[in-house]
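Treating backbone geometry as a discrete language has practical consequences that deserve illustration. In the encoding step, the backbone of a single protein was reduced to a row of integers, each denoting a local shape. The amino acid sequence and the backbone structure tokens for this protein are reproduced below.
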Amino acid sequence: MIAIPRVSTEFLIEELNTSGHAPLKFICDDDATYYCKYLTQFDRTEINCLAYEVVAHFLLKELGIPTPEIALVEVAQGTLDNTKIRVNRRLREGFCKSIYFLFN
């Protein structure tokens, strides 16, 4: 059985300005840095892409190809700093419907 680890946010570093999702960069309770993608609008295609990213992650690991770790990130109470968020304003505390990548 495949299990995706869960972590909680401790500090929002920044929202990245990209041409896509504008991921949020958090420090989490495992002391790792996570780039968290949040879907700002419901789009069935985007939901499918998230599932594909999870499948691709585990396939790459099985093949021995380096890939960043993923986790479900819970946005903990008090860790959203709206002065640092422009695109992801709808994000609320709790689990996001997205996947998250760890880069150390």
Summary: The beta strands are 6-15, 24-28, 33-36, 69-75, 94-95, 100-102.
